[in-house]
Design goal:
The protein is α+β, with helices and mostly antiparallel strands. It has two domains: about 60 residues, Orthogonal Bundle (Arc Repressor Mutant, subunit A); about 80 residues, SH3 type barrels (Roll). It has five helices and nine strands. Strand 6 and strand 7 form a beta hairpin. The longest helix is centred in the N-terminal third of the chain and has 15 residues. InterPro entries: Hfq, LSM_dom_sf, Sm, WH_DNA-bd_sf. It comes from Desulfurobacterium pacificum. This is RNA chaperone Hfq.
Length: about 160
């Protein structure tokens, strides 16, 4: 009997596939075999990933075309020299760069790794906030620090760092 992956594992594997190959073109059955999931789970998986902003896809007759959702920043990053230097120092200290305005692409996998960990979020207006990442969705991050729970809109973020 064939062992199937969980949908979360399939989601991560699809993200990695898209990062490596850029897009997927093929049938539902081909994608199901590639991800080791049941074919009936493919469409719900794709709908979930589309609603979270990870992918865009379309079905043309029997063929699926799946691409990573592209994030095109409307505003250029507004990091000042001090913040740029601080980010470089933090990455040398072992912090991981999750997202910044020039990266684009799929960020959910890195954000999932950072849930429950300390993050430093740099905003486009030059300010920053530190705290524990409690959760996220397509548009927002939920961070907890000494002031309480903070809702951060992703469009206002320039860069996110976290420590493993």
């Amino acid at each position: 009997m064939k062992k199937y992956k969980t949908l979360e594992d399939a989601q991560i594997e699809l993200i990695e596939l898209l990062e490596e190959e850029g897009e997927f073109r093929g049938t539902i059955k081909e994608l199901a075999e590639r991800l080791s999931v049941k074919p009936e789970n493919i469409i719900p998986l794709l709908q979930l990933m589309k609603s979270s902003g990870d992918i865009v896809y379309e079905e043309i007759e029997e063929e699926l075309i799946i691409k990573p959702a592209s994030y095109i920043p409307v505003l250029p990053p507004l990091l000042n020299e001090k913040q740029t230097k601080e980010i470089e120092e933090k990455t040398q200290e072992g912090f991981k760069l999750i997202a910044c305005s020039y990266m684009g692409g799929v960020q959910s996998r890195e954000l999932r790794k950072a849930v429950g960990k300390r993050v430093i979020i740099y905003f486009r207006n030059g300010s920053r906030v530190e705290g524990k990442l409690k959760g996220f969705d397509r548009f927002c991050l939920r961070v907890r620090n000494y002031m309480g729970n903070i809702l951060v809109y992703k469009h206002s973020v320039s860069t996110i760092l976290y420590k493993e």
